[in-house]
Amino acid sequence: MIFLANIGNTNVNYGLYEKRILASGYFPIHLLSCERRALALFRSLLRKCRVSREEVEGTVISSVVPEKNAIILNAAEKISQTEPVLISSRTGWEFDTSAYSGVLGTDRLLCCSAALQKYKPPFVVVDFGTATTLNVIDSSGAFAGGVILPGVRTGLRALAASTSQLHEIPFFGPKSAIGKNTAECMLSGATFGTAAMLEGLVRRIEKELGANADVIVTGGNAKAIIPYCELEARYEPELLLEGLAIQANRLIAVSKKARVE
């Protein structure tokens, strides 16, 4: 059994894997201020699954928040009593990423890796998180590039922080695109606006690819946006953890081969 965790800008997404994702959860990253809190969180997952520490063979972790790495890595090591593996952009990937010249977040790579196991390219993987990212896999199965935008809730907070008469509001789905008050107008922009943005960008991406592309959506805000989309989208809530599981399986295979040799 493998413990998996992704350290994101808003949440830590964590889970247990043995042939499939057995259980998973999210926890606000700002509350993980010390190793003790992270350890308590991970132990609660083991108790929920009725799994002992001795059954956890290892841990695989990815991160886009380097300053939180030590807290999570140290806690994870105490859970499995083995040194955790930290996935990085230098990790070996089963698809070509050479078209991208910048630093490519491991969360984006992991989601694409998992999607390639389930869907035939070309496709677009949309991750609705702190940022909304669109990640394009072309017909050859290579990473072609993507789009990065402010996330749904990030955009709402930015409006409240940057204007004098707009304030933070609870996030929920509006009933109509035409808002009848300021809060409804903001929510319409966040939901209908994000959905329309996605539809428009997918059309432009398909035009550049010269082919229709499946749309695969994941991330903490995905369920809030999907109902407002007029395009067909495949919802994959565990895509990121499944990408980590693929890396775990690869590391296990390499380890077994090394022992045989």
Automatic annotation (TrEMBL):
Entry annotation: catalytic residues: D107 (proton acceptor)
Gene Ontology process terms (BP): coenzyme A biosynthetic process
Pathway: Cofactor biosynthesis; coenzyme A biosynthesis; CoA from (R)-pantothenate: step 1/5
Keywords from the UniProt entry: ATP-binding, Coenzyme A biosynthesis, Cytoplasm, Kinase, Metal-binding, Nucleotide-binding, Potassium, Transferase
Cofactor binding note of this UniProt entry: A monovalent cation. Ammonium or potassium.
Top EC group: transferase
Family listed: Belongs to the type III pantothenate kinase family.
Job description of the protein: Catalyzes the phosphorylation of pantothenate (Pan), the first step in CoA biosynthesis.
Required co-factors: NH4(+); K(+)
InterPro entries in the cross-refs: ATPase_NBD, Type_III_PanK
Protein's UniProt name: Type III pantothenate kinase
A single GO cellular-component term on record: cytoplasm
GO MF annotation list: ATP binding; metal ion binding; pantothenate kinase activity
Gene that this sequence comes from: coaX_2
